[in-house]
Amino acid sequence: MISIYLKGDSWAHRTPAGVKLLSVALASLLLFQVASLWIFLPCLIAVVALYASLGREGLAQLKLLRGLTLFLAILVVLHWLSGTLMEGVAVVLRLVVMFLAANFVSVTTRLDDMLEAVRPLFLPLEWIGWSSRKPALGVALTLRFAPHMMQVFSMLREAWQARTGSRTSWRLLAPFAVQSLRMSDNVAEALKARGGSEGLQG
Amino acid sequence: MTDRSLVHVAFYAALIAALGLVPPVAIPLMGGVPITAQTLGVMLAGVMLGPVRGALAVLLFLFLVALGAPFLSGGRGGWGVFMTPSVGFLIGFPVGAFVAGWIMRATSDMNILAAAAISAAIGGIVVVYAFGVPGVAIMAGLSLPKAAIASVIYIPGDLVKVVLAALITQTVARGLPGAVLSRKSGGVNDKIFD
């Protein structure tokens, strides 16, 4: 399944998803109460140590930070311009720590286990007459649709490229929308023919 | 919610995800700020599905991202993204889709191209930034005006997406009129088929 999950069997993988989610939520709550560099720095070291405990592949996950660097740099500059440089550095450190800690949960938990862990959150849906299974079915459908759409789009793009020579165009968006919408209608029919979401077991 | 609605919701959640996987385009005229297609999906969900289903589609998408699917633009995903300064924008997405769908429904006697453009602009830009900018301010410890400056570079790209969303809606309305669910009167078809 598509996920940022990193395969492994470390202590972190064996910890139940619910425990990991709760501890990250708690840690983030606490981190928002403080604003001192001298607290964030040890936290950063601790979080990096968490990744290091997964081995080399774990440390390689730190590259995820790259996507954030530009924004964090802008933040520091904005703070520097308004004369609160140290505060800016502290804020950036806090963001990095919180991001890495939360990401650690995703890296060490399979998507299925995560879904199972948050399932109780959907029980209230049954009070209004919905099945608490519907979100899980929605997740499964979405995960199946997304790659299919990419496929539809690349087929259209190949056809476009063969005819015009140019790689891609916004003109492909409309046929893409129509084709993939038809597909979703077929899925809806198929689901209904099989007894609908209420008919699915487990 | 009928099964058909659930499939539609999942479909648009997947569309937002798929658009996030489209590589960002940097437009030199706009200072080379990368434009991702993701918010186009948010606009389309609201404009096509109407307020409730549109918002649910975005929520389902965000739920998947939170579970660890790398569906945010740039292949980002996991609980970590809700800890970044852009969290306000993520919170604004479902509200924006709701507002876009609501306006689309309220303007049902207007020309579809104009109605879709207005809905996408207000839902997809005004509402999303109304949540996004305070989000940046809180998460980054900046004042509101500074946070707005940090976010404003993405507005030109968002305007391009408003135009695209309107054009796509118009094309779909011609080719597959039943797919513009926000415009269906009273959901008569749903009642017959479900």
TrEMBL record, chain A:
Task: Write down the superkingdom of origin.
Answer: Bacteria
Transmembrane helix listed as a keyword: yes
**Mind telling me which Pfam families this protein's record contains?**
CbiQ
Question: Is Phosphoprotein set as a keyword in this record?
Answer: no
Topology versus the membrane: Multi-pass membrane protein
Q: Which UniProt keywords apply?
A: Membrane, Transmembrane, Transmembrane helix
What is the similarity comment for this entry? Answer: Belongs to the CbiQ family.
Q: What is this protein called?
A: Biotin transport system permease protein
Q: What is the lineage of its organism?
A: Bacteria, Pseudomonadati, Pseudomonadota, Alphaproteobacteria, Hyphomicrobiales
UniProtKB/TrEMBL annotation, chain B:
Q: What is its main location?
A: membrane
Keywords in alphabetical order, please: Cell membrane, Membrane, Transmembrane, Transmembrane helix, Transport
Q: Name one GO cellular component term.
A: plasma membrane
The question of whether NADP is a record keyword is answered with no
Molecular function GO terms recorded: biotin transmembrane transporter activity
Topology relative to the lipid bilayer, per the entry, is: Multi-pass membrane protein
Leader sequence residues: none
Q: What subcellular compartments does it reside in?
A: Cell membrane
The residue ranges crossing the membrane are 6-30, 42-67, 79-100, 112-131
Answer yes or no on keyword Oxidoreductase.
no
One of its Pfam families is BioY
Give the family this protein belongs to, as stated in its UniProt record.
Answer: Belongs to the BioY family.
What name does this protein carry?
Answer: Biotin transporter
